[in-house]
Design brief:
Blueprint lengths: L10 H8 L3 H15 L4 E11 L28 H13 L4 E6 L8 H15 L3 E5 L5 H10 L3 E3 L18 H13 L3 E8 L5 H12 L7 E6 L16 H14 L4 E4 L8 H10 L3 E3 L12 H10 L3 E2 L2 H5 L18
Parallel strand pairs: 1-2, 1-8, 1-9, 2-3, 3-4, 4-5, 5-6, 6-7, 7-8
Bound molecules: S-adenosylmethionine, 6-(5-methyl-2-OXO-imidazolidin-4-yl)-hexanoic acid (DTB) and iron/sulfur cluster (SF4).
Length: 340
């Protein structure tokens, strides 16, 4: 089994992995997963919308876009105290990562960004992994966030480059990738991914996975969202996809990005315990906990606790990650050069 450098990964190879018979894909993905992670541990993270609604972007899936009437009330940037209380509560509930989201197109320098820097620094002091998702970011802004203690930045490519213009027209795919580079250069870990079920083809999913895998170094964290169809948005009536489609994407992601945390993010409401089990078996190892994501609903905490208990899964502690933090992925060791 050879271990080619990941940047040599071709879309053709991703396609071969993606279309493996499901038994084979899951067997290989789970084996790879076990090589890099404790399969019985799941990171529980918490989201908080620190600035809600009224976003100038036209992302077709988003309840917070000002272009659509979705019933989400616009709220100003939250106070620091409220954020600290929410982070403390999340920590008490077992979350080891706290992600603050703002419905901004991009970060603007000024008092609001200064307040975000204070939030980052305060959550960092609580000894949690601090993550932000604030829209586009310059190199200098990324450096300031890093200095404040930011651990990760979430900025999704959302889908394949080809499919992207069907979903968003107010900013380009290139813009998204540039921000991801700025984050990486500042020494912040990268969290990026996308949404399944927006009407994309399977080739789009393959191209999306390929784009994620050829980032050099690869993202430390990959978010896989299942579309939550929001009334009022252009994707409101999109037909839901099957869980096995999500599982196929996760299994492929695990094989081509063996060391990345794979976050099963939006869309768990409505997934059964068995559905989610298959996602975890294929390589997903993080969920967002609490009844709310940013603005949409998520399974209730007691429900998730029961699920984790039923599956014998433990919420990972901060200590579990200390050995993984500095790992940058240089090779793909899943044997994808085997005849398939
Ligand atoms: N404004 C920032 C940005 O776009 O990067 C941060 C917030 S945005 C809500 C974060 C991500 O949430 C999006 O990139 C998208 O992938 C995901 N998301 C938003 N609405 C969703 C929906 N209805 N269903 C699934 N995922 C969604
Ligand atoms: C991501 O990929 N999914 C999370 C996180 N990154 C910020 C957000 C999901 C948002 C779902 C819609 C909402 O709650 O508004
Ligand atoms: Fe929603 Fe972020 Fe798009 Fe704004 S930029 S519409 S908050 S996904």
């Amino acid at each position: 089994m050879s271990s080619p450098h990941f940047s040599s990964l071709s879309t053709h190879t991703v396609k071969k992995i993606y279309y493996l018979p499901m038994m084979e894909l899951l067997y290989r993905a789970h084996n790879t997963h076990r090589k890099h992670f404790d399969p019985n541990k799941i990171q529980t993270s918490k989201l908080l919308s620190i600035k809600t609604g009224g976003c100038p972007e036209n992302c077709s899936y988003c309840p917070q876009s000002a272009h659509y009437q979705t019933g989400v009330d616009k709220e100003k940037l939250m106070n620091l105290d409220k954020v600290i209380s929410a982070a403390k509560k999340a920590k008490a509930e077992g979350a080891t990562r706290f992600c603050m989201g703002a419905a901004w197109r991009e970060v603007r320098d000024g008092p609001q960004f200064d307040r975000v820097l204070e939030m980052v620094s305060a959550v960092h002091k609580l000894d949690m992994e601090v993550c932000c998702t604030l829209g586009m970011l310059s190199k200098l802004q990324a450096q300031k966030l890093k200095q404040a203690g930011l651990y990760a930045y979430n900025h999704n490519i959302d889908c394949s480059k080809n499919f992207y213009p069907n979903i968003i027209t107010t900013r380009s795919y290139k813009d998204r990738i540039q921000t991801i580079h700025n984050v990486r250069e500042a020494g912040i870990t990268v969290c990026t991914g996308g949404i399944l079920g927006m009407g994309e083809t399977e080739q789009d999913r393959i191209d999306f996975l390929h784009q994620l895998a050829i980032f050099d170094p690869q993202p430390e964290s990959v978010t896989i969202n299942k579309l939550i169809p929001i009334p009022g948005t252009p994707l409101a009536t999109q037909k839901p996809i099957f869980t096995m489609e999500v599982v196929r994407v996760i299994g492929t992601a695990r094989l081509i990005m063996p060391k990345a945390m794979i976050r099963l993010s939006a869309g768990r409401t409505g997934m059964t315990e068995s559905d989610q089990f298959l996602c975890f078996f294929a390589g997903a190892n993080s969920i967002f906990i609490g009844e709310k994501l940013l603005t949409s609903s998520n399974p209730e905490l007691p429900h998730d606790k029961t699920m984790l208990k039923d599956l014998g899964l433990m919420a990972s502690t901060k200590k579990d990650f200390s050995s993984m933090k500095t790992t940058s992925v240089k090779t793909i060791d899943n044997g994808y050069t085997e005849p398939v």
